[in-house]
């Protein structure tokens, strides 16, 4: 290779070999290096794959745990190495990813930096492009996801954007392979120098800032006249950027120029490199640079007192505002007006003072009614299948195979039966409730519900969206917890998670309905008993809602006081729901997922129930021991030992509380004609038989009421506890969310029991 | 069975007792733990801070002052100052106590931690402004130098705390910033709020209640010997002189001017539109970033679209999306209303 002159020869690569080597990029066999930058979720990896095909491999950024993908492609006569930078929203280096991306562009000096931008989110994505343009001129903007933009009715004027930015803007749909040829061409033009980018930079600051930047910029130019972007360096120093400060001090920044000159010296051969004068000159250079750098940093430090406390913010906002301005100029939305007016008309109806809330209540009632009514038949069918048929068949099969009673007992009577119960109770309501809920969500109605209810939530320190997660919790608390992801304010999210348990989930409805029918309905004349028991259950559910508001208020005033809180609620456009797709995703995402988790927890629960009832110590089962031991405490709280043990073993799943209670009662005082055996849960077909068994077990009205209350206010089921832990990642908040309701439940039962007895003693 | 009324009474006593002990911040348990923390090291550091403060304000540091500032007995203060003199952090002459070079740099370090903590509270947490100082006072003694530097790096090495006080750099430099006490200004003078003194607490609370924050735009309307009337971020306030003494202002440079009077977004009714002027300086940290992310930047057009049944929240159209914000948030966004002829008539 002939000696390149130190004047820039247009087609020569500008990348910094030494720094690239430090960054772990080996440029042997490659002509140019291209960096691929962009926000997360812009299809950057699709672009990467489209350009490199199979010529890629992954590794790590040196010294960091962040992975890096590297690949290559051939275009024209040249070989290009493509380095995938981490997806970042900005380059202000507040996270490792941003630091890596910024350092690569600044010190590695890639021949081209391609910034991938989401055409449907232009004003957000341009932030990064503008920041990249502050560091280097050699940029190509890849405007990706053009297919989605077209589908949303957006029209992007790429030529205007390219003029405004001063660099090539190439529209692409990487997923469909469109626009990639033009992209390659633009890359080649910028790399070879046949296109020279002319980005417009800077300006628009306040006078104080401009003065400071100019003063510092002059000082930097004094020391390092060859530096092309002194204004940017001055801004970074004034912003307190550690990395850049360090680079100024060590002279890393100016070495960019020296490297270029030295690369010509390198080619003179190894013999000359041993020349002492070269080394000496280098040393002198180092110390001179150091002194200069220190001087610059001192001036910067002095100026930082003058630029005021809001400097960083002003910088950030300047970039944001400019990005927004450019996006506004380039993007126009088609069909916006017509759809918009329709949406507003619907909104005015749905959020009106008179009709808004009644409409909402009517819809919710409809959803609940459909769930309960619709689930009855499938639940019965599943029960028949799994319990009346399959279970019996399994038992017979086990007997025929001669399996010892305790294995078949544990596996079939315990584990299988418990799981079968949970599935038959849980599956049908969820399969109806979740799809309906998701349809409403898809349609766009749910955010309006949050909008209507936000005022009352704000009063207690919660977010309007908590209404949605609470409604979800009426289906299943674990699903409700997952739903809290829609609340991005940390404090409000925790409140929603902790109070979700006060939503009466599907698994607890059978308990409530049964107990209410037997004990509360029985108090009313026969023709009203159905209505009265329904009202009782509704009262309990509404009480749960009040409790969740009260607890939200308490939490936001005490332990969640100092947490960060930000509110916003987007009201997306209405759109016709995609019915089949919704049913599919809600079945997979919510129903099956939660069901699987429930099974995982129900199996051990069934095992424990069976074991506890069948293992005998001193002639009595462990269960009976525990019941006797817990009885005094239970009665004190207006419950009983049986109830407490049932709740203890039913922590994994609320569905099996009633069957377990029945089984335990019969275990301890056998009732003629009832019961399937020790440790085998059962249910009875009619209400009056159940009443007989319960009364035989010593159930009183007080116990029944407290059971209903405790069922509402007790610890979340283990599936929910596990979900809380997964969602919060914090053992502390999981403990709070699990123990707080239990403590409240006991306090509530205590109060009710004492007041009841007090009143009774006067009656 | 336990007598129910007895059980209820015991429960009530228990509940009241628990509240008295553990009530956040005021409970007896917390006060006791706080008093226990007043260890030797904590007192020394507080004493150094106090003496530095005296130096900064050009007052003399006396035994009496130290006793008052730290809330300890005179005997204890004497002993403390004696030990500080032995450690060569403090020297005394004629009843006056002064910091030595070493004492000064230690004081600066404590002040650095304190002010960084306050900055952290204002940016990263939802803590009340009134609690910043107290919490910083508590935590400054327990934050190690490594934690401090990590926090400073994460916050971007800020030079000012949320009251406008300079934060000493890691190498111990601190510059007093050129501000003008409000008392020195006359009617018509303009500037930005540069410093809000946080002691005495009672006056600070009054300033906080008026929703004042550094960076806000200020114009003096009227002065009198006992009061001063101001326009701060387009809201009028009247303060007594005592309160106004706690405010300092930075004057504008040549060529800069305050933005004209503006309204807040909350003043828009459905159907009305405006252009965003700025987000109030009082809005910081995550909340501010959220609003910026939503597109509420200078120059953006906003239109109020619909209101919730209770009057709150309100849905605003911002760059094509409809976003609902609460009234408290909308009051932080400064806008200039559009004057558009409605039904043929022009609105002023």
Describe this structure in words.
Chain A is α/β, with parallel strands linked by helices and 763 residues long. Chain A is built from 31 helices and twelve strands. In chain A, strands 2-3-4-1-5-6-8 form a seven-stranded mixed sheet, sandwiched between helices. Mean pLDDT of chain A is 83; it is low at 1-8 and 263-273. Chain B is globular, with a radius of gyration of 25 Å. In chain B, strands 3-8-4-5-6-7 form a six-stranded antiparallel sheet. Chain B has a six-stranded antiparallel sheet with strand order 9-14-10-11-12-13. In chain B, strands 1-2 form a two-stranded antiparallel sheet. In chain B, β11 (301-307) and β12 form a beta hairpin. Residues 341-348 of chain B have low confidence and may be disordered. Chain B has helices at 4-22, 28-37, 40-56, 63-70, 74-86, 101-124, 129-139, 145-155, 201-209, 241-244, 285-293, 327-330, and strands spanning 90-93, 96-99, 180-181, 190-196, 217-224, 227-232, 235-240, 247-251, 263-264, 273-279, 301-307, 314-318, 321-325, 333-337. In chain B, α3 packs across α6 and α6 (101-124) crosses α8 (145-155). At the A-B interface, α8, α13, α14, α15 and α18 of A face α1, α11, β11 and β13 of B. β10 (569-571) of chain A pairs antiparallel with β13 (321-325) of chain B, so a sheet runs across the interface.
């Amino acid at each position: 290779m002939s000696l390149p002159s130190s004047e820039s020869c247009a087609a020569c690569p500008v990348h910094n070999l030494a720094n690239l080597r430090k960054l772990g990029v080996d440029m042997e066999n490659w002509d140019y290096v291209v960096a691929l930058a962009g926000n997360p979720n812009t299809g950057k990896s699709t672009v990467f794959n489209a350009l490199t095909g199979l010529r890629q491999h992954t590794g790590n950024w040196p010294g960091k745990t962040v992975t890096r993908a590297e690949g290559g492609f051939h275009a024209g006569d040249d070989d290009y190495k493509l380095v995938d930078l981490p997806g970042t929203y900005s380059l202000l280096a507040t996270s490792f990813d941003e630091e890596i991306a910024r350092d690569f562009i600044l010190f590695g000096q890639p021949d081209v930096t391609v910034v991938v931008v989401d055409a449907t989110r232009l004003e957000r994505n341009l932030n990064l492009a503008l920041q990249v343009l502050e560091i280097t001129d050699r940029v190509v903007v890849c405007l990706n996801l053009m297919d989605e933009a077209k589908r949303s009715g957006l029209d992007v004027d790429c030529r205007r954007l390219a003029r405004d930015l001063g660099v090539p803007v190439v529209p692409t749909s990487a997923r469909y392979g469109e626009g990639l040829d033009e992209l390659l061409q633009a890359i080649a033009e910028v790399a070879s120098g046949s296109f020279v980018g002319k980005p417009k930079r800077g300006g628009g600051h306040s006078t104080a800032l401009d003065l400071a930047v100019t003063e510092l910029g002059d000082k930097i130019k004094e020391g390092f006249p060859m530096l092309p972007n002194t204004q940017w360096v001055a801004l970074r120093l004034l912003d307190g950027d550690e990395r850049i400060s360090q680079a100024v001090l060590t002279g890393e920044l100016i070495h960019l120029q020296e490297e270029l000159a030295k690369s010509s010296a390198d080619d003179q051969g190894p013999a000359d490199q041993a020349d002492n004068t070269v080394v000496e000159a280098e040393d002198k250079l180092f110390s001179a640079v150091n002194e200069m750098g220190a001087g610059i940093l001192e001036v910067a430090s002095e100026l930082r007192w003058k630029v005021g406390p809001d400097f960083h913010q002003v910088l950030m906002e300047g970039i944001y505002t400019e990005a927004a301005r450019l996006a506004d100029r380039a993007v126009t939305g088609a069909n916006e007006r017509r759809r918009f007016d329709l949406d507003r008309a619907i909104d005015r109806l749905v959020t009106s003072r008179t009709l808004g809330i009644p409409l909402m209540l009517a819809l919710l009632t409809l959803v609940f009614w459909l769930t309960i009514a619709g689930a009855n038949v499938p639940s019965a069918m599943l029960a028949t299948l799994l319990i009346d048929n399959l279970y019996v068949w399994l038992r017979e099969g086990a007997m025929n195979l001669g399996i010892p009673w305790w294995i078949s007992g544990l596996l079939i009577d315990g584990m299988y039966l418990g799981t079968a119960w949970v599935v038959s109770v849980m599956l049908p309501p969820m399969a109806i409730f979740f799809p309906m809920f998701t349809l409403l969500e898809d349609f766009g109605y749910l955010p309006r519900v949050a909008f209507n209810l936000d005022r009352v939530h704000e009063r207690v320190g919660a977010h309007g969206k908590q209404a949605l997660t609470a409604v979800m919790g009426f289906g299943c608390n674990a699903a409700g917890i997952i739903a809290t992801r829609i609340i991005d304010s940390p404090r409000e999210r925790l409140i929603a998670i902790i109070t979700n348990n006060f939503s009466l989930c599907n698994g607890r409805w059978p308990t409530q309905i049964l107990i209410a029918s037997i004990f509360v309905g029985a108090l009313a004349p026969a023709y009203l008993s159905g209505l009265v028991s329904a009202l009782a259950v509704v009262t309990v559910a509404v009480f749960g809602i009040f409790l969740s508001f009260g607890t939200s208020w308490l939490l936001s005033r005490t332990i969640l006081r100092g947490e960060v809180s930000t509110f916003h609620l987007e009201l997306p456009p209405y759109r016709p729901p995609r019915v089949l797709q919704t049913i599919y995703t809600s079945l997979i995402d919510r129903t099956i997922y939660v069901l699987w988790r429930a099974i995982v927890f129900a199996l051990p629960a069934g095992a424990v129930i069976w074991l506890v009832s069948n293992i005998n110590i001193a002639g009595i089962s462990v269960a009976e021991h525990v019941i006797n031991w817990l009885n005094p405490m239970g009665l004190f709280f207006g419950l009983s030992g049986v109830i407490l043990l049932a709740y203890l073993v039913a922590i994994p799943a609320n569905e099996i509380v009633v069957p377990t209670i029945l089984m335990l009662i019969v275990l301890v005082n056998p009732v003629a004609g009832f019961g399937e055996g020790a440790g085998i849960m059962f249910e009875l077909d009619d209400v009056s038989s159940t009443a007989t068994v319960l009364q035989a077990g010593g159930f009183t009205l007080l116990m029944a009421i407290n059971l209903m209350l405790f069922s509402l206010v007790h610890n979340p089921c283990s599936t929910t506890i596990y979900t809380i832990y997964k969602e919060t990642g914090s053992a502390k908040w999981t403990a709070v969310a699990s123990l707080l309701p239990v403590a409240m439940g006991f306090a509530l039962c205590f109060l009710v029991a004492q007041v009841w007895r007090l009143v009774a003693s006067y009656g | 069975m336990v007598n129910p009324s007895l059980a209820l009474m015991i429960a009530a006593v228990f509940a009241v007792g628990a509240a008295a002990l553990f009530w956040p911040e005021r409970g007896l348990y917390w006060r006791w733990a706080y008093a226990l923390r007043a260890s030797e090291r904590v007192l020394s550091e507080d004493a150094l801070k106090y003496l530095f403060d005296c130096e900064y304000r050009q007052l003399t540091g006396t035994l009496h002052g130290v006793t008052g500032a730290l809330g300890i007995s005179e005997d204890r203060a004497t002993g403390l100052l004696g030990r500080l003199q032995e450690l060569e952090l403090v020297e005394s002459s004629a009843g006056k106590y002064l910091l030595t070079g070493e004492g000064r740099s230690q004081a600066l370090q404590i002040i650095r931690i304190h002010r960084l903590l306050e900055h952290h509270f204002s940016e990263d947490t939802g803590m009340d402004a009134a609690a910043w100082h107290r919490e910083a006072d508590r935590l400054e003694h327990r934050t190690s130098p490594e934690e401090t530097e990590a926090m400073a790096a994460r916050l971007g090495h800020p030079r000012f705390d949320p009251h406008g006080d300079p934060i000493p750099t890691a190498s111990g430099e601190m510059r007093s910033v050129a501000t003008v006490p409000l008392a020195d200004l006359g009617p018509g003078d303009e500037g930005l709020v540069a410093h809000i003194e946080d002691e005495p607490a009672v006056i600070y609370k009054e300033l906080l209640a008026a929703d004042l924050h550094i960076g806000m735009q200020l114009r003096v309307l009227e002065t009198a010997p006992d009061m001063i009337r101001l326009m701060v971020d387009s809201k009028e306030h009247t303060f007594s002189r005592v309160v106004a003494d706690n405010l300092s202002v930075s004057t504008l440079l040549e060529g800069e001017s305050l933005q004209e009077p503006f309204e807040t977004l909350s003043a828009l009714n459905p159907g009305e539109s405006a252009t965003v002027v700025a987000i109030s300086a009082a809005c910081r940290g995550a909340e501010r970033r959220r609003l910026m992310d939503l597109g509420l930047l200078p120059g953006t057009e906003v239109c109020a679209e619909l209101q919730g049944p209770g009057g709150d929240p309100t849905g605003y159209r911002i760059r094509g999306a409809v976003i609902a914000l609460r009234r408290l948030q909308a009051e932080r966004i400064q806008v200039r209303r559009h004057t558009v002829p409605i039904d043929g008539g022009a609105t002023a």
